[in-house]
Structure formats: structure tokens, C-alpha cells
Amino acid sequence: MGQIVLGVGDYGASNTPGDDVKTFALGSCVSVIFLDPKTRTVGMAHVALPDSSINKAKATEKPGYFADTAVPALLALMTKFGCHPRGKGIVVKLCGGANVMDTNDTFQIGKRNALAIKKILWSYGMGAVSEDLGKNYSRTVSISVSAGQITLSSPGKPNWQL
Amino acid sequence: MTKQITQEELQKIVQSIPMLSASASQLLQVASQPDHDLMDIVNLVRNDAHLTARVLKIVNSAAFGLVNNIASIDRAVSYLGERVVVSIAIADCSSKVFEKELSGYESAGGVLWKHDLRTAIAAREVVIQSGADINSELAFTAGLLHDIGKALISDYLHGTVTDAIELLTAEEDLDYLDAEEKLAGFDHTRAGYELAKAWQLPDELAEVIRHHHEPSNAKEEFRALVYAVHLGDNIAMLGGFGTGSDSMRYKLDRKYTDYIDIGPKTLATIMLNVDIEFEKLEGSFHSSGEKN
After folding, report:
1. What is the percent of chain A with per-residue pLDDT over 70, rounded to a whole number?
2. What is the predicted ipTM?
3. Which CATH class is domain A3-161?
4. Which of A21, A71, B142, B156 has CB atoms 3.0–4.6 Å from B208's, for a disulfide?
């Protein structure tokens, strides 16, 4: 029983009842969440940028950092817990990808992150069943492995579920 | 309803903040002069035994991974760069400001320093990656100081976070500056500007503190620098390093494009470099990262 805290560009998974998988203060970063009902495994990646082509070395060192390398890395990790290698049966949820107010296209980094994640998920035939993306506030995400329940929080707002 | 700060009270708060050390103050003056060189910085550090020791300790910390220790102050300063030396001097004498718990924004102690350091690194990266004609070292220093006003008004905002968020949700055109003004009587840029005056900061730094959320209102001669910090601040917040309840609840001043040219790909490079540089610098400021 413990807390698995993921920093920027980290990814992780757990099937231990009582564990929480958590990430703090998502801004434009997007949290990709995989829930596998069959093996009762929870996985998450904290994605910072859409495309690994800007720095291949960073992508090798921290695949969770970029959308296009995070999804395959998280899937490979989930496979070690007995999940289907192409993600069959996995429930996908997304959150984060916020913007500042009055943003222009260049600063829509959150939107580009979410789109890049959806694109790579699509190539596996996967898609998000629910999402809480955009807006202009930070989100902290906590997933309980026992219940598969995702709780989001943000200063000054009551907690909500995804 | 919370207590509104009066002009008189703000002056009292400003006076309760320790002055900058003589070295930090002189370093900021020198760093703002366009024609200074690194030896000017070295000479100022050399005259302050405490600062010299701190600089040597940090350059030889594990975070920089030097094979051979650096023993001379001029080599240490040229290795670290002006911006890091200035940061060390500021951090050393103003921890009361930078390490303050921002309870009014629901943030723990140390969060303000991290946000400021991210903003500083990002402002410098914006200048370097865009090739804009702005002093990148000064952009860093200005980034470090831009939010000092939050430390002044935070206590007065204690318990207001839910009200602030409700206000901003009800009136979508308002940003967190409006909420601060309504709930405490002063927003953090106005409060910070008062401290900038008390600290006798150079004009360009005071201008950044006053206008970093709406650089188009800054004096023309300093406007490009203010825009660099404005973008650095936004990049820090988007990267998950805001100061709590106010994070991303400010407007992007889109006229930055008149001064700074960056596209989506350059922005991605900047954000990645900020993560890498932050890890290195943050580690070096902490004693746990020191060798032997």
C-alpha cells in the first residue's frame, strides 16, 4: 500500500490494492490514464510535449515525456501486468492540457499535447472514454487502484471525479 | 470579506521586509548596465567574503558535476555565469520573501522560489531561442524578481481562494489580478512595485515587476524585456510551476509578437530546455546536492 507519485515525463502502473497513482499540478501537460478491468491494473503517464522528434535522447531517457513515445511505453509496462499488448480491453481517460487566458495558437501547447495523444492512441485502435481537458487551471490527479476511481483537484474548487 | 490593505499598511509591510544586501543591490545595478562585463561582477563578489564562499560552494556542488574543484572566484563566476551569481546573492539575503509560505494562494513555502526560478530560466530561453535583441542574463534576473509582490499580499489573501475562484468563474473576463485587487485591495504587481522602489531596484527591473502581466503598458524602452519575462511566467505556469490558486488565471498579452518571434516548435524546445536547466540549477541551490 503506497503512493506512486509521477513527475513530469514519468509513467507508472500498479495492481496493488490500496495503492494510489498520483501526479501534481498539471498545467499544459496531459495525464494519460489506462485502467484495465481484467487485471485490475492502473497506469498513468505525465506527458509534457507532443512530439519526440525535437530531442531523441530525452525520449530514450524519459519516454513518458512525449505523447508519441509515452503511449507505447505505458502499454509495454501494462503488458508486464498481464494486460493485452495492443491495449484491448483497456479503458483510457485523459485530463490536463490547460491553457492561459486569451491564449494564441502558439501557446495552445495543452491542446497540441491532447491531439498528439489521441493520434497515437488511434493508431492502436484505442480512444478515451472520458476526458477533462483544457480550461485555465491546474489539476492534480489521484487514482485509487482498488476502486479504479480518478479524483481531480484544483485550488479553490471542490474535488471532482473523472 | 477579508481585510483590505491600505496604502499606509502596504508601506508598513514593505518596511518589514529586510533590505537587499549591499552586494546583491550592487550586482543588480551592474547587471542592468548595458556595457558591463563579467569582471565587474567578479570584483563585486570578491569584496563579499560570505558571497564568495557561497558561490564556490555552489559551483563545486554535485549538481554541476565538475571533475576538479574550482578554487578561484573569477573562474567560478565565469563558469556559473552572471545570472546564477546574481541569483545566489538574491536568494541569500531575501529568503524571507522567496521561501515564504503563500497561504493566500494555498501554496507551501518554497513554491514561490521554484516558480521564480522557472520563470527566470524560461525568460532567458525565450530570448536565446527567439534571437530577440534583449539581454538574456537580465531577462533571467528580472524573471527571478517578477513576483515578489505575492509575498507581500499573500497573508491578506488568506482564506480567499474559494471566493477568488468563484469570482473568476462568474466573470470570465476577470483575471487573478482583479481578484487580488478586489479581495486584498492591491494586486501583486502594484505591491511588488512598492518593494522594488524601497529596494531601489534599477528601473528596468521595477518595470518588469509592475507590468509583467500586461507588458504593453510598460515603458517602451523596457517593453521587450518585460515581454520576455511575461512569456517566461506563462511558460512556468503551463509547465506546472505556478504559485497555487492563481496559476494560468492570467491573460496572455498577444502583442508579444511585435517583439519576440517564437512558433510552436521553438516553444516546445524552450519548455524542454527549461525542465533540463531547472533540474540542474534547483539541485545546485540545495545543500543535499553538495559533494563531500
Report:
1. 99
2. 0.95
3. alpha beta
4. B142
